[in-house]
Amino acid sequence: MVITAKLCFFFLQKINSYGKIWEIKRLRIALIWFIRWVFGGTSQGLKVIPCVGETLEQRESGSTLDVVAAQTKAIADKVSNWDNIVLAYEPVWAIGTGKVATPAQTQEVHLELRKWIHNNVGAEVAASIRIIYGGSVNGGNSKELATQPDVDGFLVGGASLKPEFIDIIKSATVKNSS
Ligand SMILES: O=C[C@H](O)COP(=O)(O)O
């Protein structure tokens, strides 16, 4: 079973904006417990796709790499078995908006994530972990994104419900032929 924790992070980001409301605080605590439960499950074989990504404001202020590093650290602190983790980079501004990160932006972040894992988790995990991209991937942009050396796959939302999904799947041939 694969569980994505991205919704949790999304809601936590939203909740952070309104954190003074008592009920929201209770929900926040519940979500934190849920995240702990999810990552605790990785030690028992549960597969998890945690997602990291910056808001548009963070990208424009130049803090993208710091933001995703901090998010990855929060994840790494909870992970006991990296074999059960696929890490996804999903810029918040690209999710469901039709605005996709450029191949260069994607590669920059994925490379940085792999370096972070190398330096903080280990060389073996850095070499083997799959780092996938999500955020307005479609049949027209997947092939070029797939050419990036540190892009190991995609987390596809809207386009997975359309015929073009087959083109996204076919972009894997870019990897296989390189
Ligand atoms: O679950 C998928 C991701 O949130 C990306 O969604 P999207 O491809 O519709 O932007």
Automatic annotation (TrEMBL):
<dbReference type="GO" id="GO:0046166">
    <property type="term" value="P:glyceraldehyde-3-phosphate biosynthetic process"/>
</dbReference>
<protein>
    <submittedName>
        <fullName>Triosephosphate isomerase</fullName>
    </submittedName>
</protein>
<dbReference type="GO" id="GO:0006094">
    <property type="term" value="P:gluconeogenesis"/>
</dbReference>
<dbReference type="GO" id="GO:0005829">
    <property type="term" value="C:cytosol"/>
</dbReference>
<dbReference type="Pfam" id="PF00121">
    <property type="entry name" value="TIM"/>
</dbReference>
<dbReference type="InterPro" id="IPR000652">
    <property type="entry name" value="Triosephosphate_isomerase"/>
</dbReference>
<dbReference type="GO" id="GO:0019563">
    <property type="term" value="P:glycerol catabolic process"/>
</dbReference>
<dbReference type="InterPro" id="IPR013785">
    <property type="entry name" value="Aldolase_TIM"/>
</dbReference>
<dbReference type="InterPro" id="IPR035990">
    <property type="entry name" value="TIM_sf"/>
</dbReference>
<dbReference type="GO" id="GO:0006096">
    <property type="term" value="P:glycolytic process"/>
</dbReference>
<comment type="pathway">
    <text>Carbohydrate biosynthesis.</text>
</comment>
<dbReference type="InterPro" id="IPR020861">
    <property type="entry name" value="Triosephosphate_isomerase_AS"/>
</dbReference>
<dbReference type="GO" id="GO:0004807">
    <property type="term" value="F:triose-phosphate isomerase activity"/>
</dbReference>
<keyword id="KW-0413">Isomerase</keyword>
<comment type="similarity">
    <text>Belongs to the triosephosphate isomerase family.</text>
</comment>
<comment type="subunit">
    <text>Homodimer.</text>
</comment>
